[in-house]
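Go through this one:
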Amino acid sequence: MNVTKTKASRSARPRSGRPTKEQAGQITGHIVEVATKLFLESSFESISVDLIAATARISKQTFYARFASKEELYAAVIRRSVDNLLMPAAGEPDRAGPIETTLIRIGVELSRRAIAPAAVALNRLVTSESHQFPQLALTVHESAIHTRGLIADIFSNAMREKQIRSADAHFLAEQFLYAVVDGHTRSLILSGKTARSEKDLRERVTAAVRLFLDGCGATS
């Protein structure tokens, strides 16, 4: 009887072993999330693998099973941050509505993202490490190109619908981003006054969009 109970109790114990694919993905995601917070709050050089492992509450063996080096983890952090913080959720332009409405929506979203503390920290981090990680700086640059492409499509659509006069859509997108988003947000960041109310942000973007469209010969 004792032998039977012993065997039963042993068979009831959960088996230890490698984590499932889902569990491994969760651990990897957790490491990236922890490292993102550490890197954005400090710098690449000042954050060690020991600190990342300790903060994530994992062993260094677990870390190196997923990332060959701190540099590889840093690359994962930057790519994830670009997707989450900088890439706009522009979606399809409202083809039934005026271009002004679409551009105000896009301008407000991009401005809000640009002055978010995490986005400011990301740009600072990428700029400071661009000499060591030029490919990651290029990743941020490519996200800007993607954004310009989305906005160029909006201008192209407005030209087809005769809402604005014909012009180079990509040039308009580039100038729109500077006039409505980049110039103002850069000034706010340099002055340290990035805390803006939604009302102030929308009013400023609306005024800038209307001025820009006046120059485009908008008919709506």
Summary: The chain has a mean pLDDT of 83.
